[in-house]
Amino acid sequence: MALALSIVALLATFYQLYLQRVHNEKSVKPLIQIDLTDQNGLLYVHMQNNGLGPVILEKLVFTKDGKIYTDITQCVELNPKEYQRVTISGSVKVVPPGEYLEVFSKQFGEDISVSVIDDVRHQLADLKLTVIGRDIYDHKITTERDLSWFARHLPKESHNMV
Asked: Which of these, 41, 47, 60, 151, could form a disulfide with 101 (CB 3.0-4.6 Å)?
């Protein structure tokens, strides 16, 4: 009888360890959200970590017309010195909980015409962003977002021409 109770207690202990491990993994899980803004001459794409643990980013993938790119400079026809961006190549980037990574950001001056801003909106709207990373327990995390949201106020015929 004592041996049976010891075995049951040992099994219960291992099960409790398993439950604790599962709880720990879920309590530090990152939650990736791709945020887009288009207001007051500011266009940006942020990768926000709204989870409770850090996310280890391995790659940002941009898809345009079925082709895959790892750098936004390859996808948009803008001078790279005129906008903010991040490139992840050959290394990883850690984004702590509550922080964001600026994937793309462009602030236009008040003297810029709407057609110039619309052109950048068109270029961004043609992209799809895929964020590939992992959590601290090495679980793969992938989030995708189509950036066609930037074309929501553009005339339909002008978006189809670009």
From this structure: 47
pTM above 0.70, yes or no: yes
- What CATH number is attached to the domain comprising 108? 2.60.40
Calpha distance 71→89 (Å, rounded): 9
Owning domain of residue 5: 1-27
CA–CA separation, 146 vs 126, rounded Å? 8
Do both 129 and 152 map to the same domain?
A: yes
Q: How many helices (H) and strands (E) does the chain have?
A: 3, 9
Half-sphere exposure of 37 (CA within 13 A, CB side): 15
**SS3 call for 150:** helix
